[in-house]
Amino acid sequence: MKTIAIASVLWLAGCSCHSPRHTLPLAAHVGERVVLEGIAEPRKLGAAVRGDGFDVWVEQLHDWPVEFVGKRVRIAGILEERHDLPVVVQRPGEPIVAGIPVAEGQDLHAASLRYVIRAARWSLVR
Questions:
Q1: 3-class SS at 117?
Q2: Spatial contact of 53 and 22, defined as CB atoms under 8 Å apart
Q3: Rounded CA gap, 126 and 123, in Å?
């Protein structure tokens, strides 16, 4: 029942699941079952879904099956917030290090945020 309620709230709010012109407020739904639509993309950190105003990774899916890559998918699962993106402040004159460069003074904890769908089920949108 909770999933239906969330889907209804998201639909009424005009989320990117149903309206490509609005950003889904992911933070408000952490810990809840969500249903999202977007484009299946392979990323260095694993399979992700890019929607209008959001990116989410799929837990334990390292790559999309070839028939899903670049296609519109519907994904359902539990939304989690993680702070595990490898962010670094690259200072002039210092050796180059691996990670996502962020500006000096930027909140590294906030910059390391990513959203993940666990217990995910997905399908192509026809």
A1: strand
A2: yes
A3: 9
